[in-house]
Design brief:
Blueprint: H1 2-21, E1 29-39, H2 42-45, E2 55-66, E3 69-83, E4 90-105, E5 113-126, E6 130-146, E7 149-160, E8 167-178, H3 358-370, H4 385-397, E9 402-408, H5 415-435, E10 443-447, H6 460-466, E11 468-474
């Protein structure tokens, strides 16, 4: 019975819109009425079951914003099966819904099909006391059945901002577009200024003009309408917007500082000169206001490396042409400004710095597991001195690298005491390396306590691995 009543209402609305919309030629607003089928169980069951769909009614107001954009405000009232847990439990509830949507459309009035995409934000009211919010995303497809009436299909997936509230909604119904009436056209062409050009074609309908200029006047007879003529009382050329040019140098007399002597536009219509006095005429001088040699087209090169200053990345230091005028002190093919180690040759992949050899990396890995301390203390055992000496030797061979020392413990004892012990042990290694001649500014230390285990603390072997000091060598 409800479906018969709904169908009758839709047919009545369609008939009424046909009577109202017959006068319209454009559409700025619209109203849609759709039958709604919501499914809140689909995201959990991951399958479409007809019995999972509820029923409802959607009424949507639509506003035209631009050639490709609409705003939609749908209001929905429906019943649905709402999930109560992720194992398939549900209960039936009545819901109210209100959304604000933006529709990205492809629409022309003469088209039979009117598709669009939409997205927005909305809220649902459950059981008249529980509000949850959602982000609707979907697609719509409208089929024209009359001038401003469409059969409307709509599908959306609503991303719920609360748990168990994602849902699928399908809708079908009618869309009616509303618009303003078409302006009346005059029965015959009018000519208000009597110049023989109909007003609809006259660019100057209130001022008598020339048919050749679409009804606009030309006071100086130079073929440029007065409205576009910068010099309407002096005959000129179209290229200069109606202004004269006595010396024909392409600079209008009103802007030409030498109006009777052909000149150059860059010199405000005056003859070409040698402004910087370098013996090269300004026309051929790429740097007319700065003296430079003929070999460099008149541009300066203050470091004398054959690269003009404007193109020289290092204009005060002689360099190579292939390196944009910059030097390469270590000869590794990377200019000094880009070289992280300008005095030590290295590959481009390492930005000009020498790479750490594998044998040196092995020493740092060995040191991580073999630097020893007195039990429960930050006192280095004598057996650790040799490996720390080797770490100091690595730093001396790679003067551009820095060292990060980090201390770690197992989980035996309190977290606070382990944190303090790891910090003290990292500092003990830091202090020892300073004693071996490593600059303090090249090193840093930190303790992580038991927070970064690399093995299982439940076993003796794992705890031994977790008690360690790591040595990370790096470039800034």
């Amino acid at each position: 019975m409800k479906r018969k009543i709904l169908l009758a209402a839709l047919l009545a609305l369609l008939f009424l819109s046909n009577q109202l919309n017959a006068q319209y030629t454009s559409a700025k607003e619209g109203i849609a009425l759709r039958y709604l089928a919501p499914n809140h169980l689909f995201p959990i069951s991951e399958s479409l079951d007809f019995n999972d769909f509820g029923t409802g009614l959607e009424m949507e107001y639509i506003r035209h914003l631009g050639p490709a954009l609409n705003m939609g405000v749908p209001f929905k009232i429906y019943k649905a099966f709402l999930p109560t847990d992720e194992q398939g439990g549900f209960q039936q509830e009545a819901l109210l819904s209100l959304d604000l949507l933006l529709q990205l459309k492809y629409f022309r009035e003469s088209n039979f099909i009117y598709p669009y995409l939409f997205a927005g934000f909305g809220g649902n009211l459950e059981a008249l006391n529980d509000v949850n919010f959602a982000v609707p995303l979907g697609v719509g497809l409208n089929f024209r059945i009359q001038e401003h009436a469409y059969f409307s299909l709509k599908g959306e997936y609503r991303l719920g901002l609360q748990d168990l509230r994602d849902n699928l909604q399908l809708g079908a119904g009618l869309l009616f577009l509303l618009g303003e009436g078409a302006p009346e056209r005059p029965s015959k062409a009018s000519d208000a200024d009597g110049d023989g050009v109909p007003d609809e074609n006259d660019l100057c309908p209130a001022i008598p003009g020339l048919p050749a200029l679409n009804g606009c006047p030309d006071s100086d007879g130079d073929g440029v309408p007065d409205g576009e003529d910068v010099c309407p009382q002096e005959a000129g050329t179209a290229a200069l917007k109606g202004c004269p040019d006595r010396d024909g140098d392409g600079v209008a007399d009103r802007e030409d500082e030498c109006p009777d002597e052909p000149g150059h536009p860059q010199l405000k219509g005056c003859p070409i000169r040698d402004a910087d006095g370098d013996g090269i005429e300004d026309e051929a001088d790429e740097c007319p206001n700065r003296p430079g040699p003929l070999a460099l087209a008149g541009c300066p090169d203050r470091d004398g490396d054959g690269v003009v200053d404007d193109s020289d990345r290092c204009p005060d230091t002689a360099g190579e042409l292939k390196l944009a005028g910059c030097p390469d002190t270590d000869g590794d093919g990377l200019p000094d400004p880009d070289d992280r180690c300008p005095t030590a040759a290295g590959p481009l992949s390492n930005r000009g710095c020498p790479e750490i050899q594998q044998k040196d990396r092995d020493v740092l890995t060995f040191a991580m597991n073999n630097v020893q301390f007195e039990t429960g203390k930050a006192t280095l055992r004598q057996a650790s001195f040799q490996i720390l000496n080797e770490v100091a030797g690595i730093l001396s061979r790679y003067p551009d690298y820095k060292l990060r020392i980090s201390g770690h413990t197992d989980s035996v004892g309190s977290a606070a005491s382990n944190q303090a012990l790891s910090q003290d042990r990292a500092q003990a290694c830091y202090d020892y390396l300073i004693g071996q001649g490593v600059a303090p500014g090249r090193m840093s230390y930190i303790g992580y306590g038991e927070t970064r285990p690399i093995a299982n603390n439940n076993y003796q072997a794992g705890r031994e691995k977790n008690r360690r000091v790591e040595f990370d060598i790096y470039l800034d």
